Amino acid sequence: MYAERIEKLQNHFKSNNKFKEYIGHSAKVHSVGWSCDGKRLASGSFDKSVSIYTLDRERLNKETTFKGHGGSVDQLCWHQTHSDLLSTASGDKSVRIWDTRMQKCVATINTKGENINITWAPNGDTIAVGNKEDLVTFIDARTHKIKSEEQYNFEVNEISWNNTSDLFFLTNGQGCIHILSYPDLELQHVLKAHPGTCICIEFDPTGKYFATGSADALVSLWDINELACQRVFTRMDWPVRTISFSHDGQLLASASEDLIIDIAFVETGDKIADISVDAATFTVAWHPSRYFLAYACDDKDTYDRKRDAGSLKVWGFQSD
């Protein structure tokens, strides 16, 4: 049933496996993400800045750099239907919202701690940000006011809403996924997902699955309605830091300190392709309508090995 599709995808990437590299920062890139229309790619860095690139058919062009954060930009996420709006979480105890059309920061929301992760509800109403002290702050995306704060007594790693914005998910240090109703934040389920810390979580665009990456080097795929684990992806040897579903929900990219990024076929776990990298990978993100994968590694400068390269790469361009 899937053999034909798997072969077709494998063949696609045999002839579309070129990457292009862009130097946008003076220190390592922590987070990359595409705007919902796929026209822009953003990167957030340890150098406190956010770079915006525009995608023009087969190349990226640097459009602008946003400065203003006083600390490392650890994670960013775009509004899921408004292609100009981007939010960033920083170690400077603030969240910023940027408008790429006006090319400026339109809101700064001060929070209690050093922020490490951020997610924007798919309906656009709320931004949630988590800090190093496991406090999650919910921000009204229209008024830019804090709606509520929730303190957890366990290590909160990544946070995310489901695609309908009525359930809120947290991954934690005990290998569990906590599922809360939203907006009332009542605990609905605790899934024991992994023996090791649950690091990242991602929802597939079709609304069928979510996946989590763990310190045990595994990625688990869950049926969102049954809350049952469908399969486990086992090709990594190191803690899985970052995962991303392709626009059609067929592919799942996973990355870690392994020197490859794994591209798996979601329905069977078969390997479709892999991307060789030179260092640990912090962030991966599929384009919202094409088979382009943006990613950033802990690369060092070619000439000065003590310096970070500050680069990001996009893979999936046609090979010559």
Automatic annotation (TrEMBL):
Keywords: Repeat, WD repeat. InterPro entries: Tex1/THOC3, WD40/YVTN_repeat-like_dom_sf, WD40_PAC1, WD40_repeat_CS, WD40_repeat_dom_sf, WD40_rpt. It comes from Ignelater luminosus (Cucubano). Belongs to the THOC3 family. This is THO complex subunit 3. SMART domains: WD40. GO terms for biological process: mRNA export from nucleus. PANTHER family: THO COMPLEX SUBUNIT 3, THO COMPLEX SUBUNIT 3 THO3. WD repeats lie at residues 22-63, 66-108, 191-232. One of its GO terms (cellular component) is THO complex part of transcription export complex.
